[in-house]
Amino acid sequence: MQFGIFTVGDVTTDPTTGEAPSEYERIKAMVRIALKAEEVGLDVFATGEHHNPPFVPSSPTTMLGYIAAQTSKIILSTSTTLITTNDPVKIAEDFAMLQHLADGRVDLMMGRGNTGPVYPWFGQDIRQGIPLAIENYHLLHRLWREDVVSWSGKFRTPLQEFTSTPRPLDGVPPFVWHGSIRSPEIAEQAAYYGDGFFANHIFWPKEHFQALINLYRERYEHYGHGKADQAIVGLGGQVFLRPKSQDAVREFRPYFDNAPVYGHGPSLEEFTEQTPLTVGSPQEVIDKTLTFREHFGDYQRQLFLMDHAGLPLKTVLEQLDLLGEHVIPVLRKELDSLRPAHVPEAPTHASRLEVLA
Q1: Among 157, 162, 179, 245, who pairs with 111 as Cys (CB 3.0-4.6 Å)?
Q2: Are 282 and 290 in contact (CB under 8 A)?
Q3: Is the overall model pTM greater than 0.90, yes or no?
Q4: What is the b/e burial string over 291-313, where b = at least 16 CB atoms within 10 angstroms of the residue's CB?
Q5: Pairing verdict, β 149-151 and 159-162
Q6: How far apart are CA 50 and CA 39, in angstroms?
């Protein structure tokens, strides 16, 4: 079981001070958070990709390469690589380069993103979002597995005997998760290729994601990659921790109430009841996270959102200390003990290389 954090890289005003970090401060804070994640024993750090304010991570491979140089164990991932508006050739080469620099500690999550205007900024039509995701990933999949590729499609110029460079490290492409909040077509795509499916289990009730994950598992088995319960599933989540529950609620409430992503809607109490958000003590986070297995089956990766809504860096680092010391060791022990022997662990570069050996 892999545990980690993901960031959306928002620049948001702290409602308790009225101040917002500069882009420079936010970017440096994300790096510091990644280093802290490795320090406290997490397995994964993932960054989103955005090209519009108030977000700063427009170049994930640049950031992850910088972090790779300062870490040795943590897996570096994206929490969305925009498969619709990035050229598959550039994705193939950028992430293969990052894979070499990070000694294989790289995977990525493909997604369509949640910002409509990004499509025309990169010369695409949002109405073609699903066909773009399907065609572009088909090409990317081939570029990483075939030394010479000739290809033609609808959305980019043809390729004639093209070789992307560098080639994937050890001949093993980065592992791909297909991320989705709402699209069954993406669950189908993940199943077809035998890739991972990441349900960003944050904003909606569990029943919505149960349907997507069940579809992915059924189709994974249909395509012959293994039994349904052997499919590779990842989940999002979000927490705010303090040793005492009442302190967590009191401290987090102004951030929740003003956060652009969910402020000014349901109350904090309503939101925590209806979604995975947990605001409370380490034990409350443990108890709620353990219910995810009951809802979705055995799964391989759990990522938490912890650094958004204007939370100061000091607070985020304190959150990571609590997560690493009091929450993850218990969750790791419990979930690993419950996972049947035939259900695979989360893929790594080393484990995938072993299979090919």
Answers
A1: 179
A2: no
A3: yes
A4: ebbeebbbbbbbbbbbbbbbbbb
A5: antiparallel
A6: 27
Q: Per-residue confidence at 206, pLDDT binned at 50, 70, 90?
A: confident
Q: Which residue has the tokens 């569990």?
A: 206
CA–CA distance, 322 with 327 (Å, rounded to integer)? 7
**Structure confidence at residue 129 (pLDDT):** 83
**Average pLDDT of the segment spanning 281-298:** 96
Instruction: Tell me the average pLDDT of the chain.
Output: 93
Higher pLDDT, 281 or 112: 281
- What span, in angstroms and rounded, lies between the C-alpha atoms of 23 and 14? 14
pLDDT confidence of 355, banded at 50, 70, 90? confident
Q: HSE-up of 98 (CA within 13 Å, CB side)?
A: 27
Q: Is 81 exposed, middle or buried (0-12, 13-18, 19+ CB in 10 A)?
A: buried
d(CA 117, CA 138): 24
Q: DSSP string spanning 304-334?
A: EE-S-TT--HHHHHHHHHHIIIIIHHHHHHH
Residue with tokens 């791909």: 176
Q: Per-residue pLDDT averaged across 5-10, rounded?
A: 93
- For domain 1-354, the CATH superfamily is Luciferase-like domain (3.20.20.30)
Residue 258: helix, strand or coil by DSSP? helix
Per DSSP, what are the bridge partners of residue 107?
175
Residue showing tokens 């929740």: 256
291 pLDDT exceeds 90?
yes
3-state secondary structure of 243: coil
CB 58 within 8 A of CB 51: yes
pLDDT at position 263: 65
